[in-house]
Design brief:
2 domains; Rossmann fold; single chain
């Protein structure tokens, strides 16, 4: 197939979450648009396309069935749409963000991931770990694999001075601040982080965890609210809570990252994390579990990793991160990210992949 004048790509997921931009999807869309690719982000176009696309580029398989519900019938419908697109010689790419659905994983969700991933001509990974451990039955026989990193987020202001950010958030200049940004997905993650912070209390290390609990108690039934309050009080003894329920504004996000010394990826199980490029973008030391692509990238860039099953290991990695922050490791991370993970650089890699895909002989059956 000859290269079209302008590549047309459907990304079947929304660019907005409520009224707020989905940062990663927006960066992905805007950088490809700037590279001359026509990009539409809309799962409805997967079901009722208004035009023909050259490529369908999945981000998260579960985004395809938003509003439909998960069932054997919806899985069958996904298979039917994919078969129709293949008859029209459309190509399929997926960026492999995670191995399983983050919340409410089940065999049916795993089936959806298998259906979507195995239909793809190209699979983009963010590290060798993902490429080397992907189940064989999730890859088509002729699927090709490429490693393309997550981009940084240039729309987020990183010009705020650390001292100004700390004053705005009520911290002192001498405080040692660890930022655990994003949702905590389980009590196991809360216990891991807060137990580790307890070990660092004598060193006056403070934890900023804006989403330690993901929703406010107000508005719940009395029994549920009591149980939730008791649960939260149980965690309070471990360290500082900085609660921010609902959406975190980009301004607050900038302040929290700017004020921190270390960014902690608070996962027990993880493949990728947007907090890794975000931390590098802000010039911070990033500490995370030695798991998935996260562990691979952190080790290769000289950032501390830990065993998430060992709180001593977590505390030791945080301490190491604080020491590295004093020695300028954060600036080194920022330079690394600016040279390799800028959206325009990542977009060029993706466009190169698209062009290779469209230039290859058709595998249509």
């Amino acid at each position: 197939m000859s290269k079209p004048a302008q590549l047309s790509v459907l990304v079947p997921c929304y660019c907005l979450v409520g009224s707020k931009d989905h940062l990663l999807v927006k960066v992905f869309r805007d950088s490809l648009l700037a590279a001359g690719v026509k990009v539409v982000c809309d799962p409805n176009e997967f079901w009722n396309p208004s035009r023909r696309y050259d490529i369908i580029h999945y981000q998260w398989p579960d985004a395809i069935i938003v509003g439909m519900g998960l069932s054997r019938e919806s899985l069958s419908a996904v298979k039917g749409r994919i078969a129709q697109f293949k008859r029209e010689d459309m190509k399929f790419v997926i960026t492999r963000h995670n191995e399983h659905k983050h919340y409410g994983a089940s065999p049916l969700w795993d089936d959806l991931y298998k259906i979507v991933e195995s239909s793809c001509d190209i699979i983009l990974h963010m590290g060798r770990y993902s490429r080397d451990t992907m189940p064989a039955d999730h890859c088509g026989d002729k699927a090709r694999h490429f490693i393309v990193p997550l981009p940084t987020y240039p729309d987020i202001d990183r010009t705020v001075e650390k001292e100004d950010a700390r004053r705005a958030l009520g911290f002192g200049d001498r405080d040692k601040i660890v930022l655990a940004f994003g949702d905590f997905r389980s009590d196991e993650e809360r216990v891991m982080v807060l137990s580790s912070m307890k070990k660092l209390r004598k060193d006056k290390v403070k934890l900023v965890a804006p989403r330690l609990f993901n929703s406010p108690i107000r508005g719940r039934g009395k029994v549920q609210a009591y149980r939730e309050l008791r649960n939260r009080l149980r965690f309070l003894r471990y360290g500082l809570l900085l609660g921010n329920y609902g959406q975190v504004t980009n301004k607050l996000l900038s302040l929290q990252f700017a004020a921190s010394d270390v960014v902690l990826i608070q996962r027990k199980k993880v493949l990728n994390s947007g907090n890794l490029p975000m931390g590098f973008y802000f010039g911070k030391v990033v500490v995370g579990p030695d798991r998935g692509n996260v562990g691979e990238i952190l080790r290769e860039t000289g950032n501390p990793v830990f065993d998430p099953e060992d709180t001593e290991s977590v505390a030791s990695a945080i301490n190491c991160g604080l020491d590295l922050a004093k020695k300028g490791k954060g600036l080194e991370n920022r330079t690394f990210a600016d040279a390799r993970w800028r959206p325009d650089i990542v977009a060029k890699s993706i466009v190169d992949v698209y062009e290779q895909l469209l230039a290859a002989p058709s595998n249509q059956e």
